[in-house]
DNA sequence: ATTCTTACA
DNA sequence: TGTAAGCA
């Protein structure tokens, strides 16, 4: 455990925004921003935000999703389905399948575009090099 | 000193 | 998201 500030009756480790931010390597602004987007809902004590271990793990999931290019709006949907049972699980998986499939398609399309451009550039490159070669010798 | 909100870059 | 401002 870290140097957390408070502990409730159930001995649950709690964090202040400063600790949470440092622990995850993000700014406090980022954490508040995600809250604004409905991704995290910390409880408040005298107006100040208090985060639980659960919130911390949730933030980890958010950062992971973001790192692979997931839009915050999709992360929110994913989180809303997360932790549910039965039907929720199914919808959770269906959502993941749908989104990953779309992302894969998008990336493959970009890859084709890049490959195409790459081929054109190589053609131009070789052509120029060829002409320069003839001019010299 | 720290956090919070709001607003602008 | 960073940064700044004005509070509590």
TrEMBL record:
Residues forming coiled coils: 90-124
Pfam families per UniProt: MerR_1
Domain of life from the UniProt record: Bacteria
Stored Gene3D superfamilies: 1.10.1660.10
Gene Ontology molecular function: DNA binding; DNA-binding transcription factor activity
Alphabetical keyword list: Coiled coil, DNA-binding
Domain HTH merR-type: 14-81
PANTHER family from the UniProt entry: HTH-TYPE TRANSCRIPTIONAL REGULATOR YFMP (PTHR30204:SF58), REDOX-CYCLING DRUG-SENSING TRANSCRIPTIONAL ACTIVATOR SOXR (PTHR30204)
Name of the protein: MerR family DNA-binding transcriptional regulator
Species annotation: Alkalicaulis satelles
């Amino acid at each position: 455990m870290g140097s957390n500030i408070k502990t409730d009756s159930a001995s649950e480790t709690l964090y202040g925004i400063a600790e949470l931010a440092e622990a995850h390597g993000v700014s406090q602004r980022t954490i508040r921003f995600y809250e604004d987007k409905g991704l995290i809902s910390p409880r408040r004590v005298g107006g100040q935000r208090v985060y639980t271990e659960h919130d911390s793990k949730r933030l980890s999931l958010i950062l992971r999703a973001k790192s692979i290019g997931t839009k915050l709006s999709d992360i929110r949907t994913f989180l809303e389905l997360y932790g549910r049972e039965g039907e929720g699980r199914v919808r959770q998986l269906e959502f993941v399948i749908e989104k990953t499939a779309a992302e894969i398609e998008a990336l493959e399309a970009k890859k084709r575009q890049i490959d195409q451009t790459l081929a054109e550039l190589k053609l131009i490159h070789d052509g120029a090099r060829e002409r320069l070669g003839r001019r010299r010798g």
